[in-house]
Write a structure and sequence with these properties.
This is Interferon-related developmental regulator 1. By secondary structure, this protein is mostly helical. Helix content is 68%, strand content 2%. It has a two-stranded antiparallel sheet. It starts with 11 loop residues before the first helix and ends with a helix.
Length: 419
């Protein structure tokens, strides 16, 4: 009984084969083949559900490796397709498995279980079923987050899970405040880092502080305005101290949180005034133009890019609008609140984010996209250009680009202009 079984993990290949027909109403036009064979939808769906039932059973296996592999396979499946009805029938079994793995598993298993709990709530949306799941898992997640003896990775995963699940399900304002307080107790310890005699411990906990700060910031976006004002007063003058942290990810998390706090503060009060504005903008400008040689080039590039946007937000109340494309639709991210929400769910869903934006009712409500756009296979086929046309277009674009670049590189092209 204790020997690990050979678990065939759920892969992206499975997702592409099995969801092509099942979710054809929402698929990206580019994913359709022009003359592909018809797929038996019912058979592929039954095959998929049979596989998933097997993975659910394996989350109770005696082998830790087998349990973790099963959890990871379920995560891949939940992030790559909508399985609402399948999950609804088995939500209590899944909740019990996740609870057991978080309570009794080791670090990697706890992380996988926490990730699966997030996806479970994303699949079910903000209904009574998700509330029941959170009532069961919430206390367990809080206990791990606050347990100094638990691994940092497990506490980090549970902090993220706590924030996301609370964001999805909580109608109870006291539960929202309680969860935010739990996360505050974690990341505010980073404020005392300079005064902490045990510097090694502080550095070790930085990843946990980052996750707790980002999860707390996500929950702040759904707080009532009077609570938002209290939190701004409490944290706005302390957060700039984190901009001096050695960890680039903590500096970025603190910078983005500051930009979001300023955005919320100006929404609540058009005449909002920050006393130490000059000192703060000086710090942000230094980070936006950081040239320290002892820092990695990749870190510096990433930091400068983020802090240019943060500086614009704080100084000029400006946000560089981003466009997210999914299928035939477009979504514009035009504020820090929306960016924070999008980044959080993208981290959880990974490559499945675009698919969920197309077909997940909960996410479409969060981003105000309206009901899913239903497109049948025939419509999608007409939207897609043929392979030959695409080849001609790419070839012409390549020639034009080469010609333009050659002109710029060839100094002789400018000779005639001067003589």
């Amino acid at each position: 009984g204790g020997q690990p079984r050979n678990v065939q993990p759920f892969s992206d290949e499975d997702a592409s084969i099995e969801t092509m027909s099942h979710c054809s109403g929402f698929s990206d036009p580019a994913s359709f083949t022009e003359d592909g064979p018809e797929v038996d939808e019912e058979a592929t769906q039954e095959d998929l559900e049979y596989k998933l039932k097997g993975f659910i059973d394996l989350t109770l296996d005696k082998s830790a490796k087998t349990r973790q592999a099963a959890l990871e396979s379920l995560k891949n499946a939940f992030s790559s397709k909508i399985l609402y009805e399948f999950i609804m029938e088995r939500r209590m079994t899944l909740t019990d498995s996740i609870e057991r793995c978080v309570k009794k598993g080791k670090s990697d298993e706890q992380c996988a279980a926490a990730g699966l709990a997030c996806l479970l709530c994303v699949q079910l949306g903000s209904g009574i079923e998700s509330e029941e799941i959170f009532k069961t898992l919430g206390p367990v997640l809080k206990k791990i987050v606050c347990d100094g003896a638990a691994s940092i990775q497990a506490r980090q995963a549970c902090a993220t899970c706590l924030g996301i699940c609370c964001f999805i399900v909580t109608d109870d304002i006291t539960e929202l405040y309680s969860t935010m307080e739990c996360l505050e107790n974690i990341f505010t310890k980073a404020y005392q880092k300079d005064r902490d005699t045990n510097g090694v411990s502080s550095t070790h906990n930085t990843v946990l502080h980052i996750s707790a700060l980002l999860a707390w910031t996500l929950l702040l976006t759904i707080c009532p305005m009077n609570e938002v004002k209290k939190k701004i007063e409490m944290h706005l003058h302390k957060l700039p101290s984190l901009l001096s942290c050695d960890d680039v990810n903590m500096r970025i998390a603190a910078g983005e949180t500051l930009a979001l706090l300023f955005e919320l503060a100006r929404e609540t009060d058009a005449d909002f005034f920050y006393e130490d504005m000059e000192l703060l903008t000086e710090k942000l400008r230094a980070l936006a133009t950081d040239g320290n040689k002892h820092r990695a080039k990749v870190d510096k590039r990433k930091q400068r890019s983020v802090f240019r946007d943060v500086l614009r937000a704080v100084e000029e109340r400006d946000f560089p609008t981003e466009t997210v494309k999914f299928g035939p639709e477009r979504m514009y991210i035009d504020c820090w609140v929306k960016k924070q929400t999008y980044d959080t769910f993208k981290e959880i869903l990974g490559s499945g984010m675009q698919y969920h934006l197309q077909s997940n009712d909960f996410l479409r409500n969060v981003f105000e996209l309206g009901p899913p756009v239903m497109l049948d296979a025939a419509t999608l086929k007409t939207m897609k250009i043929s392979r030959f046309e695409r080849h001609l277009y790419n070839s012409a674009a390549f020639k034009a680009r080469t010609k333009a670049r050659s002109k710029c590189r060839d100094k002789r092209a400018d000779v005639g202009e001067f003589f």
